[in-house]
Every structure is written in C-alpha cells, then in structure tokens.
C-alpha cells in the first residue's frame, strides 16, 4: 500500500502522522487502527488510549440504545478483554480453554469457524486469579492467540487454520498466560504470568511470519539476560549501572523473583519504544527478600527491534503489599508546563497515578487517584520513591503480624481493567477499586509449580466512605487531580471506552453496561446484561451503523469466589470474603451483548 493512503487514513482518524509511521509500525495494523469502524487490538490503538472516533452514538441519543444481538460463548468463568472486528468479521475469545470464534456480521453473527485448543486442564489450578484471557490481536491476515498454557498460536483469519504455534513458557513451574499480545512491525510481543509461583518474568518477541523467537528480556537478574546496558539504560535520567538488579536481591533469590509481565503493552512508533509494567516480587513476604528487588514493580521502555531497554522506573521498591505494576501505559502528546511533551500516564495498583516523559522516563506527576490511599504519604519526584507510612509497612511490622487497615488492598486502586483517554476533554476515565485490606506475611518455601505467596489477606470496602467498593473517575494527568467521581457498589473491573460522541462506557460487576457524559460523569444509560461484566467495552461500525459490544461473564480476581465456587473468606488471595455479596446480584455466564440505536 502506498504511504500516502496510510497518511490519509491516519489524518482522517485524527491522529498525528508520526504516531503511525508505516516505516515503524506494522503497516496493516496501522491502517486498520486509523479506520474507527474496526478494532484490531485490545488496546484500540498502539497508544492504549481506548478512544474511538465514532460519534453516531452520542450524549444526546445514547439513552435510546437497544440490544441488537447477543451470542453465548459456551464457557463460564471470567470473560475479560473484548472482541475484535476486521471488515465484516468479528473474532471472539473465551477464558480457558481459550476458544476462538469467527463470526460473520453480514450473516447475523454466523459462526464461520471455531478454534478449540487442546490444553491440559492441569494449567487451571496454576492460574492464580481465575482462568481469564484478555484477548486476541489481528495483524497481516492472522489472529494471534496466547493460550493459558503459554502456547502462542497464529491462526489464518479466513479459515482458522494454524499458521504456526510455539511454547512461550512452562506451566509445570507456574508460568501461564492471561494477557493479550502486541504486533509491532514484523514481531509479536508477548509476556508471561505466574509471579505467585515464583517464576522469573520475561517479555519475548517472536517473528510474526514464522513464530521463531527473536529476543527475550527478563524483568530481574543479570544485565545481559535483562537486555539492559549499564551505561545507556537509565532510571530517572541516570545510568542504572552494572548489576542494578542483582545488587538488590539476596543471593540467588532473583531466580524466583517474580516480576511477571501479564499486563498491557503500548508502542510509540516515533520513538520506536514498547512500554509495559512488571509485577510483584516473589514471595509476598517482604522479610524473605531484603532489598529493592529491582526491577519488579517497574515501567520498562524497550526497543522492539533488539529488546534493549532504554529506561526503567520502579514505582514500588521492595513491595510489601502486592502492588503489581502491570497496568496499562497510556501514551499522549500534551502540554506540560507550557511545553508540548510526549507523555506516558500510568494508574498503578499502589494507588498513585504517574505521568512521565515517555522519551526520557522523567517523572513529572505522582498523585493519589483515590483519597483513601494511606500506605505512603507521597512520591518524591526527584528520587521516585514513595514515602512509606510505618504503621502500614508489613515489612517493618514483621512476619506473623497482621497489619490492618492498609489502603488500597492487594488488588490495587486499579488492577488490569484499562482506563481510556479522550483527546476532546483531555481527561482519563478510570475504573477503580475502593478497597482496603489486612495483610499478614508468613515464612514460605519455594517449590516449583506450587504457590509461593507467603501472606494471608482479607479485603473490605474503604472504611468511612460511601460504603461501596469502587468508583469510576475522570482524571487530569497534568494537575494530578480527580475531576469527577461516580461511586459504585462493587469494584469497576471492566475496561473503559471513550468516544468522539462525548460518551464514556464501562461495565459493572453486577452486570450493567453504563454510559456516562464525558464532561460531567452524569449517567446517561444503563442496561443489565446476563452476568457480571469484567470485559472491556468496544465499538465498531457495520453497514454504516455504530455498535457497542461487551462481554459478560463474572470472574477475575474480584469475582473469583463466584467463578470458582470458593467460600473461605481468605481464599482467592483474600478476595472471596470481600466480594461475598456479589452472589446476590449476578451469576456465572459467558455472553457477548451488542447494542445499537434503533433504526
């Protein structure tokens, strides 16, 4: 395809030409991102904005939305992620066993093909927080699936036949997958889950045509295995130095150090950098792993061609609360202090929202995006370190001591459920958890393939607040302030979608699809679907008509009690007790619901 046609599409989508240079991005993916009728990535675009230029459904008429059609996935447990739409085809995924459906939108959602992976069910108990999967990606005529057992598969989008498959990890030692993938240029970028089993996290690039491994960079360990340069890789503008990770672990603890990479990936074609976050160190007992435990709980910026790390920033050194740093990195070009800058905004599990310069890794803003956050008073912008409150330090309080009243809980002020950004309002729309916890660490021994947690947790709504366990907020990433906040009875575990129609969509754990005004937060529409929503709302256009689609199917960490039939309040890493009331509002299911305006 000629460069001029891609440029025209890019401009038509309201994006800067540099953001989708065909020389740097995957040309097919870039072309389709520029067409808002389609969605080929779970993140909507490379910048992870989850913003759509479609505006047929707007703040004035969204109240008239109706169910257009629905589809049963045939699978229970938590349904995260969203379908993809390419041309007249919709591609739909499920939790384990990770079925893939190709549906013809021209024929009322007729099943054109169905892919059924053959996976050993022994992987199920190794998945820490439900059998979720955050969805497929499309590139160059292929659907890319990363299964729970870490098998990475390329499927022919027309026929469903396997182009190639490769194993990315080993479930026998606790490596699994729950995340989507990111096609960049001629590569597929993938991560790994399993920090609760003492795995050593990594990010890997595979050749998109053959499945051959190109490079792998670990989160912790020796410099050469992490793909860092002691002099050229920086943290807050300074070289990280030799053995920057090894020096922060005791002995060989880095070999079971965690730092899984199960979150979302972003890409800046202009800077040619991929951004992602790393998860918690293993174990959850901080007394067993003295030091900063670098580079867990960190933001990485890597060159997708070589895997070499440009910069790293660790948000929660020596984590004592399981505040994984895997949440999405949203890339925007905005004015900061009167100067246009390339920004990265990240809503961390630890309750702080970070704004950084994504070219240099300079920390610009770090503020609480839920006022109840209490484990730290603030983040020092010069050192990047949080100022920990001794009362809530599980390390200082010691093993076998129950530290009470820590806010947020281990599932964070926000977990994986992705936020959205609207260039029209310059605001971020963030699904949040309003939850606190008690946390008691204990001594644990590492055994390959067995849980390596070492803490007992209980979770509950933030005391002295609105009584619910969630808020849906609008955030200003320049000022570091909440602009408006809508309370919710349960955590908002669904990914948000912002649209040019001045409407923001999200789902609730009870099962409501909600639409709110992007400027004020006023609720404009809601509809109760068949099961709790932890999927991400998406939109597409078919035959000139805009549709909204969302997966229902309660589960995930917050809904693990319902999904897996657990009753012990401390089970599900502490979530079962906290969300016990959810069973009075919804039930298991697996369904896609599609909405449109009446003719």
From TrEMBL:
Cofactor(s) recorded in Swiss-Prot or TrEMBL: pyrroloquinoline quinone
Family: Belongs to the bacterial PQQ dehydrogenase family.
Pfam families found in the cross-reference section: PQQ (PF01011)
InterPro entries membership: PQQ_b-propeller_rpt, PQQ_MeOH/EtOH_DH, PQQ_rpt_dom, Quinoprotein_ADH-like_sf
The entry's keywords: Metal-binding, Oxidoreductase, PQQ, Signal
Organism per entry: Methylorubrum aminovorans
Signal peptide, first to last residue: 1-20
Location of the Pyrrolo-quinoline quinone repeat domain: 45-365, 492-548
Protein name, UniProt field: Methanol dehydrogenase [cytochrome c] subunit 1
